[in-house]
């Protein structure tokens, strides 16, 4: 979204272009404005917080993981107080750790995170990442397919854990609409939408995405598949791309044009 000077500017700008949800840090939001004003900014603009990030380092040392748990409780309380009940994180498809002990530790840690978030009525969404170049970025392959992510969620065993489904990773995994139709409503916590450049899928870079409607992903099929599977929640834009000099207003207009194009065909 370019340079955003404040959360207030972000919320009001999103509303001005017809968006009904934003993803932001609820703790920072409340610290900046106070809970009552933060809630008023959202309500007066007709905007809700779609999801929050899992700001806990569950991938590295046990010490760093434990250090983040207190902040997670604070984030859960802040999100709940502002009416947000989704938290998301991503699963990198490779790791420098040995895969088996890494999965064992990550399973336990994510289960604990889910338990903490569950106390505030918040669901945890795990995003599988399909970008091929990241599968060999670190020493050992880990997990990048949707079915494997679902199996891991079952192993984690917390009822409030599900998927964050991103159109880019659906595309880079060469998944089809039929794969989405296998999902149940409880499998899907949150959805990201973006687009991809033309060319071989194995050459697509994770940080070089396009705005919705500007590329080759079958976004109409993607959204229809999720809708048929029973998802009726927020569809949030996530465009990881090289930095731009465009203003927030210009990029919001670009986003709106893309959303209008995609949703007009549904």
UniProtKB/TrEMBL annotation:
Matches recorded under Pfam families: AP_endonuc_2
Protein name: Sugar phosphate isomerase/epimerase
Protein species of origin: Cohnella nanjingensis
Domain Xylose isomerase-like TIM barrel: from-to ranges: 14-243
Any GO molecular function: isomerase activity
Domain of life per record: Bacteria
Alphabetic keyword roster: Isomerase
Keyword Nucleotidyltransferase on entry: no
């Amino acid at each position: 979204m370019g340079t955003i000077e404040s959360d207030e500017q972000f919320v009001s700008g999103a509303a001005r272009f017809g968006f009904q949800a934003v993803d932001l840090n609820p703790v920072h939001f409340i610290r900046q404005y106070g809970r009552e004003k933060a809630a008023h900014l959202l309500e007066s603009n007709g905007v809700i917080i779609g999801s929050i990030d899992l700001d806990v380092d569950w991938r590295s040392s046990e010490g760093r993981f434990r250090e983040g748990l207190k902040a997670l409780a604070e984030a859960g309380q802040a999100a709940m107080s502002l009416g947000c009940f989704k938290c998301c994180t991503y699963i990198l498809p490779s790791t420098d750790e040995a895969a088996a002990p890494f999965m064992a530790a990550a399973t336990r840690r994510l289960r604990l995170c889910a338990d903490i978030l569950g106390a505030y009525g918040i669901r945890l969404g795990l995003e599988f990442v399909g970008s091929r170049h990241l599968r060999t970025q670190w020493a050992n392959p880990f997990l990048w397919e949707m079915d494997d992510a679902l199996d891991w969620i079952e192993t984690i065993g917390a009822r409030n854990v599900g998927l964050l489904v991103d159109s880019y990773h659906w595309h880079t995994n060469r998944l089809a609409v039929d794969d989405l139709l296998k999902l149940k409503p409880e499998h899907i916590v949150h959805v990201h939408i973006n687009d991809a450049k033309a060319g071989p899928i194995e050459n697509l870079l994770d940080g070089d995405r396009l705005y919705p409607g500007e590329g080759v992903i079958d976004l109409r099929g993607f959204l229809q598949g999720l809708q048929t599977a029973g998802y009726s929640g927020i569809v949030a834009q996530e465009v990881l791309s090289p930095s731009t000099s465009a203003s927030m207003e210009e990029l919001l207009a670009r986003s709106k044009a893309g959303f209008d194009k995609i949703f007009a065909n549904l």
